[in-house]
Amino acid sequence: MSLGAKADVATDVVKVRGKIVSGPAPEKIDLMLNKPKGYVVTTDDPEGRRTVMDLLGKMAAKVYPVGRLDFWSEGLLLFTNDGDFANHVLAAKTEIPKTYEVKSNAALTRDQLDKFRRGVVIDGRRTAPAKIRILKAGPNPWYEVQLIEGRNRQIRKMFLALGILVEKIRRVSVGPLRLGKLAAGQVRDLTEREVERMQALWDPKMLKKKAAAAEERPLRTDRPQRSERPQSSERPRPADRTRPTERPRPAGRKAAKKTASRPEGRPSGRPTGRPEGRPAGKFAKKASRKVAKKAARPAPPRRGRPR
Q1: Residue 84 to residues 55, 81, 89, 169, 209: CA-CA distances in angstroms?
Q2: CA–CA separation, 145 and 299 (whole Å)
Q3: Given the residues 12, 30, 54, 70, the one annotated as active site
Q4: Rounded to an integer, what distance in angstroms lies between the CA atom of residue 182 and that of residue 190?
Q5: DSSP string, 20-43
Q6: What is the DSSP letter of 297?
Q7: What does the buried/exposed string (b/e) look like for 59-94 if buried means 16 or more CB atoms within 10 Å of the residue's CB?
Q8: In this structure, are strands 30-35 and 121-122 parallel, antiparallel, or unpaired?
Q9: pTM score > 0.70 for this model?
Q10: In the 8-state DSSP scheme, what is residue 138?
């Protein structure tokens, strides 16, 4: 390179005394794709088949796929330009759980489910313990399978070792990342929160550092502090509020008619006894007549033997 020449940091490699001079760090890009079936997970296919890079458009030159899904499988696939992020996601020691929805041509028996959970020997090695549960029963049931490995065509080989064929595979989550309602063939950026939750899988202290940094931020001064807010004792209570003077409710037509028909001197409400001077009722008169007749009747002669 002669004096005065210009170099493009994005495409050129600049060396000084045999050592590469690094330029500014590129912006980190992390993407999620809902891979449809019929695409190969690679940056370039020698057989000329469609690759997942065809679905990324302009972003294809800046990122590369993390992990793999076979040609007929679909679902969540990650892309990044951050080598450290990709290495941690793919590392076996990280043991990031990956969840799949699997459709088979027949149902697994209880013994087969237990074998699946303990691990199945494929390619001469036993797989790590896995989780499996049924999602939809039937002649072609759906299962939810969770693995912590990423071996080539692992789920298909595990089912085949038990005598069952797999018809469909859809990956729905990688660690805390969920496919959600992302349509097939669509791609979106990972949020900052999603990236932090992924990094916390291999760096648990990262979230604590974020929380400590948030506590050190200065408080907002445009809103009143807690000490400046009115205390509960200073607030007016319902009992202290002035109430309007109560007015007598106007009596209805029925009450007015009843009051007008009541004789003078009769107390209002239900009487507790017969007031003085009030004539007796018909039952009291009948009883008094019986008593008078009995008193006026002559006494009958005494019966007995004469002495």
Answers
A1: 24, 9, 9, 28, 19
A2: 112
A3: 70
A4: 12
A5: EPP-SPPPP-EEEEEEPTT-BSSS
A6: S
A7: beeebebbbbbeeebbbbbbbbbbeebbebbeeeee
A8: unpaired
A9: no
A10: S
Tell me whether strands 30-35 and 74-80 are parallel, antiparallel or unpaired: antiparallel
**Cα–Cα dist 67/181, whole Å:** 21
Contact predicate 69/156, CB 8 Å: no
* Amino acid residing at 266: R
Name 61's Cβ contacts closer than 8 Å, sequence gap at least 6: none
Catalytic, 70? Answer: yes
Backbone angles phi, psi at 166, to 5 degrees: -95, 130
Contact present, 7 and 14 (Cβ < 8 Å): yes
CB of 170 closer than 8 Å to CB of 100: yes
Q: What is the pLDDT of residues 131-175, one digit of tens each?
A: 999 999 999 999 999 999 989 999 999 999 999 999 999 999 999
Beta strands in 176-305 (DSSP E): 177-178, 187-189
Give residue-wise pLDDT tens across range 6-53. 666 556 667 776 776 666 667 889 999 999 999 999 998 999 999 999
